[in-house]
Amino acid sequence: MKKYIFILLACLVSAGAMLTSCQDVQEPNNNVPTLGGVTVKQNVKQVLNVTLQYPSLNDNGIERAYYLLSTSSDMSDSKELNASMSSGYYTSSTDLLPATTYYVQLCLRKPHGFVQSPVTEFKTNEITNEITVSEITSYSAYVSYYWGRSDCEVTFEYSTNADMSNAQQMAGSRYGNNYNATLKLNDNTKYYVRAKVTLPYGTTPYYSPVKEFTTQANAYVDLTGSEFYSNYAGFWIVSDNYTYASNWSGTSWSGNISGEADVYVYKPYNKSYTNYKAIPIYYTDKYFEYGHAKISPTNNKVSCPMTTLLPYQVNLNISCKSTNGATSSKYITQVEIANAEKAEAICTNATFDLTNGTMTLIKNNAATWSKSTKIALNYEKNSLVYFNSLIPVKFGENEVKVNITLNNSTNMKTEVIPVTLPSTSWEYGKKYNYDITVNYTRTDVSISVSDVYVQPWSNGGNTDIDIYD
Q1: Backbone phi, then psi, for 208, in 5-degree steps?
Q2: Per-residue pLDDT tens for 50-70?
Q3: Nearest Cα residue to 352 out of 270, 290, 285
Q4: pTM for this prediction
Q5: Hey, how many other C-beta atoms are within 10 angstroms of the C-beta on 403?
């Protein structure tokens, strides 16, 4: 009988010695010390997971190995974590809260009782990553939080109160290890936001530090004086360190601004342009409107009076006259206003600077304004061919010509006959009238042009812009 008692005591002493000593295992990732017999390894990148290890006793009589984990030193609120054998260690992994003190011990169940290690105390690391807030506008903000696990639920709580009372919530969508959301907010308002992480094992949620930010002031721009409400408008909001370009439909726009800014508006909106100091204008455009206003968070509702440019009109009144009752099989098929040799008065496009209301002409000797027509030389009545242009022209003698293209319906031969226009300037708000006379015989055609006579055009719009050649 004494022999059996001695053997049992020897086994208990041996097991106790192994439980109260800690073999060297892989160094914990963040150098958390091993206290007692249990090694605690924390995940450095995301401090919510720990691995508990204890060297195997190589005892076939052990029926179950598990760990007791508690936040109380007396282990009063402990929960059991099953341990499995892995590489010679009783191993268990679990999720924990950061910056929290825990207590753990290993329990081994044998046929006739339990063996327990001493209690090991450890504290989980702080989480240093913070919530980020970006893309702040007058009505929204983009929030993001890094969380190195995919099995947690991250919700963003936001409130206008620093104590997070009356907080609203929006679930975050996961992209990789980042959880993101776009919060719908009020303009010019201070907000507080934090990430709430619900852990899969049902413990107390983890809250990130609170982040404070203020939404931008909402701006409202009214297109006072605009005559073409149905068209899109393009606009820029420009400050020293901020440029925003977009478009809107209708007579007003609301959006966000950053500090004091200039608002530049133009219509019609054809497409987005990268340079508000060089908006393309084509001579065939039906109109152009532009406006400017100052805006700021404290002066965020402004009217933007619009200045309108409407084309001027060049009218060519064409009459055909026969000499000695001659008839002709020729037709006028095209009428063209063009630059004379080496001249660059006629332009088909220009650029407009919204900041100072000036136009810069784009010179090109080959530029022409052209219209197709069909006027029989035998036709006795006057025919009108007109051109509307949004680009002013100033030219001297022998710099601008009218090319008239004739086509012979009998032999299908084509000829172009030019005639130069007397020097003048074509400006907004006016009509410029020329009488073009085509004199023809059976064999010959000659063309003459009258001096210009000018008529006012009441809908001509602004005439006070500067033109740069």
Answers
A1: -75, 165
A2: 787 777 776 677 788 889 999
A3: 290
A4: 0.57
A5: 16
